[in-house]
Structure formats: C-alpha cells, structure tokens
Amino acid sequence: GGPGAARFYRSTSMADRSSRLLENLDQLELRVEAFRDAASAMEQEKEILLEMIHNIQNSQDMRHISEGEREELNLTANRLMGRTLTVEVSVETIRNAQQQESLLHATKMIDEIVNKLLDDLEDAKMRLMSLYGACTSDVPAGPIDQKFQSVVIGCAIEDQKKIKRRLETLLRNLENSEKSITLLEHQKSSVRQSCNSKQD
C-alpha cells in the first residue's frame, strides 16, 4: 500500500492502545475502590476492638472480682489496647466545600448532645435516637430530627456512614451505662432490703 495505508495503520493502533489503557485504568479503579473498602473495614475493626476492650474494663464483672485479679486483667486489657493503637489506618474522604461544611455542622449537633449527657441521660438518649432515625433507611421507631437529616444529606457518602456509626456506638454505650446504673440501683436496693430484714 501507499503512504495512506501506513497512516491508517498508525491511527488504528493508537485507538487500540488508547482503549487498552482505558481498560487497564477501569480494572485499576475497581482495585482502588476495593483497597479503600478494605482499609475502611480495618478502620472500623479498630474502633470496635477498642470499644470492646473498654467495655470489658468497665464491666460489672470487673467490679466483682478480687483486687489482684482485677489488676492483672486491667494490665492485659491495657496491653491489648496499646497493641491495637499501634495500627494506624487512615482513609481520607474527598469532600467539596459544601460537604465539609455539612460534616462540621453534623458533628457539632452530635457534640452538643454528648456534652449534655450527664445533665439528663434520658433526654440525651431520646435526642440521639432522633438523630439516628434521620440517618437510617429503615422506618425509625420514634421521631426524626428533620434539621439533622437535611444536614447529613449534604455530607459525602462516606461521612454519612461514619456519622451513622458514631451514633450507633454512642447509643450502644448509653445502653450499657444505663444497664450498669440499673444493676447498681438493684444491688443497692437488695442490700437495703437485706439490712432491713436483719433488723426485723
């Protein structure tokens, strides 16, 4: 063929090359997303492990064992806590200015309730539940905080998941602390009853 044929051959190979590179990048995009998901899962696992160790340290059972055993178990728990903290996993979320603003706003709304936790546990729990209701796709059990919902919708998807997780953890810890308080009250009243029965 003449010079035209060579030019045609070159242009098709450029198109081939281009589509092959695009295919490679598509494959890599899948791997990048899988990599980020795996790192996010590790980030969550770290949070869960720290919470579980913390819950053991503050459990009722810890209060009802000898001082020596408690000390030994606390040493082990602290060692595990330390080893967990040596793992640094950080998945940065890419946000635009509006998403950044929404995240700060949502965080502030949660923090305000958390700061008032000790003043009124029951009220704080109800308010946190209405925030949680705003994050979940299920039909919530109680009222939904509409203002919080509109703020969360403005956040990046990854941040929405993190906000929901944070609220779940807070509610779970509240549930546990309420159980502890109830148990303590129950123990005090049973001690009072046994004291009264001795006096009879």
UniProtKB/TrEMBL annotation:
The keyword Nucleus does not apply. Residues 18-45, 157-187 form a coiled coil. It comes from the Eukaryota. Keywords: Coiled coil. PROSITE patterns: BAG. GO terms for molecular function: adenyl-nucleotide exchange factor activity; protein-folding chaperone binding. Residues 102-182 form the BAG domain. This is BAG2 regulator. The lineage of its organism: Eukaryota, Metazoa, Chordata, Craniata, Vertebrata. The gene is Bag2.
